Amino acid sequence: MRNPIRYAATLLLTSGLAASALAADPQSIQWSNVPAKTITLFYPGQSTYDWLLSPAHTKGDKQVAQGKACLSCHEGDEKDLGNKLVKAGALEPTPIPDKAGVVDVAVQAAHDAEFLYLRLQWKTRLNREGRMHDYVRFDGKQWKWYGGDRNEKEVRAGEQPPLYEDRLAIMIDDGKVPTFPQQGCWLTCHNGMRDTQNSAVGDPVKKHPLLGDAGLKQTDVRKYLKSTRIDDAATWDKTKSREEIDKVKAAGGFLDLMQWRVARSAAIGMADDGYVLEYRLADEGKDPFSWQINRSTMTPTYMFDAAKVGAKALRAEDIGNPAKPAALIKETNAVPYDPNAGWKEGDILPGRMLSRADAKGSAADNDAAFGTWKDGTYTLVWRRKLDTGHPADDKIMKVGGKYTVGIAVHDDNVTTRFHHVSFPLSLGIGVDADIKALTLK
Ligand code: HEC
Predict the structure, then answer these.
(1) CATH 1.10.3210.10, applies to 14-130+165-288+359-439
(2) pTM greater than 0.90 (yes/no)
């Protein structure tokens, strides 16, 4: 009998992408024969690691400090937690109206000798994709930022439309980040980060020797691991020295973090590739996306190629119209910006440019992530090399190995903590685990 989950030997990658001769197109796998596991992602509010260690985390604080697993006390709690935390309360000072407490993600996994293949499906709250991000609008005289995430002041006030990309993110550990199998993504989440309590933004960050102008050139605080801070509370500004952090990295003490971004990577069949250590950082090389608007002069560098797209820009009524493109793609639909092209008030353009050709190095590892949105549901198939060849900022997986993953979805035009997250899950490459990747033959 033929193997029921055999995949096509010929490559059928859409967009005419070239791929290694051994690789299977994740779209050609017979996914209907791969079992699906439904994972309930829940809204975490401001349940940072600091909060988990505080007395407010009744009967959980001391055990969390000892490294105890969230699921040892919270098995089956996802729905209750999400539906409570999504509303105004101690852990949610700024709720977003009508937001869902939970998002169910159906996960399927398979592997061969070279790749891990994933298929993920989840429903969206809105009846459209979140595929517009960092857009600009011509007001008759100049280009100005247009739209934003649903937590933004102008969006909350109804002065700007909610426009922000949907995302699916996966964090991976190979046992080198202490207690990640027990406590997952919460290990990366601390007060001081954007949209948490006492978030540090602007000057205090810019002046910080390691994170600011003299170092990583950041202006806010994002995910980080305790192993990069000197104090027990893992305070955002109490960083270890560059040399000490580099040692942790060289020993593999970072988390892999890959994000399929509906605006900034999906249109070219990619996902980004980053890692979490002293900050949320991009892998070495070049991301699939870059700025195409000069943010000092607010002048675009490119516009749509009217011969291919039908117009040089989009209009507000095109939001949510799947027949229109939303991304400027260097190789296929962009031409240099012409300031004298007869711009009209209300023309809108993406501030970002996507390019497969420009994406390079470890940052370009996720070169086959194909998602579609239909009738309110995303279906994403994703191929990732078990061994990417970039151990400095990726987790290298092996057939027979077991890893820990955390999954998050940004749904409905949100960013930062306004996402839905999973408790940590084990992922087995051909071996039993919460998610077992089936061996393809
Ligand atoms: C030793 C048991 C225990 C452990 C371990 C534990 N918790 Fe809790 N947690 C509790 C109890 C008890 C409560 C309060 C009762 C409730 O709401 O379920 C609570 C409440 C919470 C709440 C707030 C719910 C609300 O009502 O506001 C969140 C969020 C939470 N825990 C997350 C976590 C996470 C994330 C972890 C793992 C990093 C974790 N907990 C580990 C016992 C635990």
Answers:
(1) no
(2) yes
